[in-house]
Amino acid sequence: MRSLLFVPGDSPKKLDKSMTVGADALILDLEDSVAPDRKNEAREITLAFLKETGAQANRPRLVVRVNAIATGLTDADLDAVVAGRPDAILLPKAEGGASIVHLDAKLTAREAIHGVDDGAIKILALTTETAKALFVAGTYADTSPRLIGLTWGAEDLSAELGAEANRAADGSWLDPYRLARSLCIAGASAAEVQAIDTVYVDYRNDAGLRREAEEARRDGFTAKLAIHPGQVAPINEVFTPSPETIAKARAVIAAFAANPGTGTIGIDGVMYDRPHLARAERLLGQVKAES
């Protein structure tokens, strides 16, 4: 996945349109974009959408963002949508590996009830939306085979911290959110799952979106969340490896394969070592997964 687009779960019109914008995944939202008095309606609309589109060929992945466990609404969300066989559940306000174990158990029970294969529904986690979450960002490894990715958020975190802003005047992240971003990358790497960058809320600022996406790719993220359909194409472009990048990765792998046991390889006057090999293998694995 390169792009994951949030879509309100209570809007059939927006859900239908989202299928045409080219996102790798749609996040059908039952949380922040749905008013409290529309939660039940959103569950019904989301379930109908899952059943209608789930069997379509070449569709995007269908992810449902449920309400956080602490709200007491998660069970009702899962009771409604597991029957629609979503590809994954996005857990907001996750607080370490214990949250994933908890959600895994809830999914296991409901998969059995609805005749869904055990473990078929995967998990994505929003890892930095509370202060507590920052201190357990490294505990996601080996929690559940369902876990496929970690992402992060700044809006809820800034509200909890009582901050006046989360970005500087030039658009860069302020220190608490740079920390959260870094913890997400490190936590995802430790858990050996995908690192997904957070949303860029200034959705009319194409240059800012592209700059932030490129910085995310540079630092190790392999995808980005989107809040507007117009953000999908630039995100896909940034996170699609160029032919030159793919060719370079193949050259590194081929050079090490031709010289087994060596620790470093010289290619066109540049030295490459084993970490470069690992990076090249990871890149080609990503390309294969997206093809």
Explain this structure.
The protein has helices at residues 12-18, 39-53, 74-81, 97-114, 131-134, 155-161, 175-191, 206-219, 232-238, 243-258, 274-290, and strands at 3-8, 25-29, 61-65, 88-91, 122-126, 147-151, 194-197, 223-226, 264-267, 270-273. It has 291 residues and is an alpha/beta fold. The protein folds into 2 domains: 3-238, Phosphoenolpyruvate-binding domains (TIM Barrel), CATH 3.20.20; 243-290, no CATH class. An 8-stranded parallel barrel has the order 1-2-3-4-5-6-7-8, surrounded by 6 helices. A two-stranded antiparallel ribbon has the order 9-10. The longest helix has 18 residues, at 97-114. The termini are close together. 41% of the residues are buried. The mean pLDDT is 94.
Question: Descriptors for this entry?
Answer:
11 helices, alpha/beta, 10 strands, 16% strand, globular, TIM Barrel, 8-stranded parallel beta barrel, 45% helix, two-stranded antiparallel ribbon, 291 residues, 2 domains
Can you identify the CATH superfamily of the largest domain?
A: Phosphoenolpyruvate-binding domains
- Structural classification: alpha/beta
Q: Number of domains in the coordinates?
A: 2
Poorly predicted regions are none
Q: Quick one: overall form?
A: globular
Portion in beta strands: 15-25%
CATH fold name of the largest domain = TIM Barrel
Kindly report the average pLDDT value: 94
Distance between the termini: 10 Å
The CATH class of the largest domain is identified as Alpha Beta
Q: What is the CATH architecture annotation of the largest domain?
A: Alpha-Beta Barrel
Q: What is the N-to-C succession of helices and strands?
A: EHEHEHEHEHEHHEHEHHEEH
Number of strands: 10
User: Strand sequence of the main sheet, in spatial order?
Assistant: 1-2-3-4-5-6-7-8
